[in-house]
Every structure is written in C-alpha cells, then in structure tokens.
Amino acid sequence: MKVLLATQKPFAPQAVKGIEEILTKAGHTLVKLEKYPGEEELKAAAADADAMIVRSDKVTAAVLDAAPSLKIVVRAGAGYDNIDLEAASAHKVVAMNTPGQNANAVAELAIGLMIFMARTQFTPVSGSELEGKTLGLQAFGHVGRLVGGKAKALGMKVLAFDPFLKDEQIQEGGATPVHSLEQLYSSSDYLSLHIPALPSTIGSIGRSLVEKMPKGATLVNTARKEVIDEPGLLEILKEREDLKYVTDVMPDNYAEMQEACGTRVFATPKKMGAQTAEANVNAGLAAARQIAAFFESGDCRFQLNKF
C-alpha cells in the first residue's frame, strides 16, 4: 500500500525515519509531501494514496474527492478538527487520531503557563505560588489527568468536571469530581481547558463562565482557540482587573487584550502544546503503527467516524 506522509510542518527527521521503518517492515511504501504550499499539491499527492498521515494539515472534502484509493487517514495528534469526518464517512475512509501521544507535552506546558502567570510573566514584581491553590480541569482525559497529577505534586487541590465520566473514574484519576461547569469555575483559582472543538463547545467559554471565577483566578487554554468566546472573554477581563488569561492558541483580538490587560494576558506565538521532540516522535510512530495494524488485521480501535 502507498502511504502518504503529508506535513506542511514536517516531523523531525527521527520521527520520519521511524515512520518509514514501521511501514516498510509491514510491506508498505512511504511517500513524503513536506512543506507544500497548499491544497492543490496535497490533492495531487493523494491521488493514488491508500493511506495518509497528517499533522494539522486539512483533510477536506475536496482532498478526499481527489483520493479515490484512500482507505484510512490518521491525524498524528489528539485534536482532529482538521479532518472533515462527515466527508471521510461519505468516502468510506476511516479517520483516526493518536490519543495520548502528545499528552505529557501539553500537560507540562499547562503547568508551565500557570507558573509563568503566577510569577507575573517573570517581570520583577511580586508573584504568587501554586501550592495551596485549587486547579479546575474542564475534561479529564489523557491530558487532564496528567495536568492533575503534576498539579497535586505541586501541592494544589484538583477538581475535575467531565460529563462523560462517572465520579469513581475521576476519583481514580486523582481528582475530586464536581457536577457543573458553574461549580468548577466558581471554585478554581486556575481553570485548565482540555475540551475539543465541537459544535457543543465552540464559543462556549466566555463571560458567563469566567465571571464566576474567584478573585485573582487564571484561565489556561491549551485546548483549541475555537472554544473561546474571545469578545466575551475580553469584556470580563476589562471589567475584572484581577483575572488572567494564558493560552498557546493566539486569540484574534490578542492585540486588544494586551492593550487592555498588560501582563494579565499571554499567548504563545504559535500552538505549542505538542512542540517537543518526544511528542513529535511519539505521535508519528503511533500513526504509522495504526496504519500497519489497520491493513494487517482491520484494527479500527481509534476510529473517529462512522459509516
């Protein structure tokens, strides 16, 4: 089978080498499309591909139309909003992600951002400590559990809200369950977001929730830009001069946020959650293994779509 590795932002050489070794051993041929300029190049490369590995590359309906032999596409990472799942289902293409492979990198970043904001972005003014503070986790999957564990090691109390988990599952993961977003936000000195961008979550984090946070609280977003109601968040940040916002997904209104809030807001220049050498390799190798298992035995364990 021909497997296309399509990455506008390429994997590290070590990851590419490992991906090729896994697929070659399984009897497949790897073709690379790196640093390509746009969708037309991706469509041309995918025309005779049986499988595809992508990172944040957009797998649209047009791309799927152009790839009649495609049977599986794997997003090397946890988020999968760059794949048109409905179109994939219509084309009978299995879409997968690689959950958990980037989790530790994102969790470490979330903790680092909390410390950065607690210490007033390392400016020479008095800051605060994380020990003794309460961390709220919105969603308690791979990343949320790791963030919670690291926070407890720093002496924080950890709360979690996840409507898809039972209380016992959250407790087994080391957090105290709460049963509403309102309770989570009103109880958290730091609130860390770990929700996907879905129709039910897009634009869901804004004024009505953030205004419930305690004095001096910090909202931490290492999830997705789309889940934030950016105008609503800016409104409450202007009104509540004690609140802070830190993110690795730069807001559209970031310049306005900076002007209004100064060191109370910070955004990294680009999405940083998975930007470690380890995560880069882990996600790529996992994607290759999943493709090999799919063609060998029909393994669809991480399938995201239905048809």
Describe the protein in words.
- It is a single chain.
- By secondary structure, the protein is α/β, with parallel strands linked by helices.
- It folds into two domains: 2-101 and 276-297, NAD(P)-binding Rossmann-like Domain (Rossmann fold); 103-267, NAD(P)-binding Rossmann-like Domain (Rossmann fold).
- It is 38% helix and 17% strand.
- The longest helix is centred in the C-terminal third of the chain and has 21 residues, at 277-297.
- The model has no long low-confidence stretch (mean pLDDT 96).
Helices and strands in order, then pairings?
Layout: E1 2-7, H1 13-25, E2 29-34, H2 39-46, E3 51-54, H3 61-65, E4 72-75, H4 85-90, E5 94-97, H5 103-118, E6 134-138, H6 142-153, E7 157-161, H7 167-172, E8 176-177, H8 181-187, E9 190-193, H9 207-210, E10 218-221, H10 230-239, E11 244-247, H11 254-261, E12 265-267, H12 277-297
Parallel strand pairs: 1-2, 1-3, 3-4, 4-5, 6-7, 6-9, 7-8, 9-10, 10-11, 11-12
Contiguous low-pLDDT stretches (5 residues minimum) are none
Q: Find the count of extended strands (DSSP E, 2+ residues).
A: 12
The main sheet comes to: 7 strands, parallel
**Helix-strand string:** EHEHEHEHEHEHEHEHEHEHEHEH
Mean pLDDT over the residues: 96
User: Which percent range describes the beta-strand content?
Assistant: 15-25%
Radius of gyration: 21 Å
As for the number of domains, it is: 2
**Spatial order of strands in the largest sheet:** 8-7-6-9-10-11-12
CATH architecture of the largest domain: 3-Layer(aba) Sandwich
Shape: elongated
Helicity level: 25-40%
- Provide the CATH top-level class of the largest domain: Alpha Beta
CATH topology of the largest domain: Rossmann fold
Instruction: Give the structural class.
Output: alpha/beta
Terminal CA distance reads 22 Å
Number of helices: 12
CATH H level of the largest domain: which superfamily?
Answer: NAD(P)-binding Rossmann-like Domain
